[in-house]
UniProtKB/TrEMBL annotation:
This is Retinol binding protein 7. PROSITE patterns: FABP. Pfam families: Lipocalin. Belongs to the calycin superfamily. Fatty-acid binding protein (FABP) family. It comes from the Eukaryota. It comes from Vombatus ursinus. Gene3D superfamilies: 2.40.128.20. Residues 7-24 form the Cytosolic fatty-acid binding proteins domain. SUPFAM superfamilies: Lipocalins. The gene is RBP7.
Length: 135
């Protein structure tokens, strides 16, 4: 059975976030505000079914999916894309590949010690975030 990612995770750091947002075409003002916000991730996992809430004072985002089943994703509130997403396990890493108007998009979540890691990729331009476990 893959690792359980369930819990509430508070952002510790984000590397390359502004550059990642710039690559996505997010406007200057939004990038400056978003860069300052510290997010929290609330992950609920029931086997291969996931609900992930990303919460901040700036914007909130909800994604629900089942590992191995392609689904329609609307990134409204983030970079406002519509795409087909497929999440799979790669050993103990949860990996998503997104197909749509912007190619080579996706993300990977994993845990090391007591921290949740996330790497977003857009045209091979990565953003890495790290969250500490709070509950």
């Amino acid at each position: 059975m893959p690792v359980d990612l369930s819990g509430t995770w508070n952002m510790v750091s984000n590397a390359n976030f502004e550059g990642y947002m710039l690559a996505l075409g997010i406007d200057f003002a939004t990038r400056k505000i978003a860069k300052m916000a510290k997010s929290q991730k609330v992950i609920k996992q029931n086997g291969d079914s996931f609900t992930i809430h990303t919460l901040s004072t700036f914007r909130n985002y909800l994604i629900q999916f089942k590992v191995g089943e392609e689904f329609d994703e609307d990134t409204k509130g983030l970079d406002n894309r519509k795409c087909k997403s497929l999440v799979t396990w790669d050993n103990d890493r949860l990996t998503c590949v997104q197909k749509g108007e912007k190619m080579n998009q996706g993300w990977t979540h994993w845990i090391e010690e007591d921290e949740l890691y996330l790497v977003y990729v857009h045209y091979l331009f990565p953003f890495a975030g790290r969250w500490s476990f709070s509950s």
